[in-house]
Amino acid sequence: MPKLSMHEITLILLSLGALLAVASAFAEIAKRFSQPSVMGEILAGILMGPTVAGTFFPEAVSFLQPTPGINFFMNGFTTVAVVLFLLVAGMEVDFTRAVRQGKAAIWVGMMGITVPFTIGYLAAGRFPGVLGCEPGVAANVYALFFATALSISALPVIAKTLMDLNYYHTDIGMVIITAAILNDLLGWLIFSVILGIIGAENGFPVPVTVTLTILFTLGALTAGRWAVNRLLPLVLAHTSWPGGVLSFAVTLALAGAAFTEWIGVHAVFGSFMVGVALGDSEHMRARTRETLAQFVSFIFAPLFFVSIGLRVDFMNNFDLLLTLLVLGIAIIGKVAGCGLGAKASGMPWRESWAVGFGMNARGAMEIILALLAVQHGLIGERMFVSLVVMALVTSMASGPVMQLILNRKKSRQVSDCLNSRAYINPLKGKTAREAISELSALMASIYRFDANEVEKAVVDRERLAPTGLGSGIAIPHARIAGLGGPVIGMGISSEGIDFNAPDGQPAELLFMILTPHDDAGAQVQILSEIGRIMKNTELCDRIKKASGYTELLGLIKTKEV
Question: What is the pTM (predicted TM-score) of this model?
Answer without folding.
Answer: 0.69
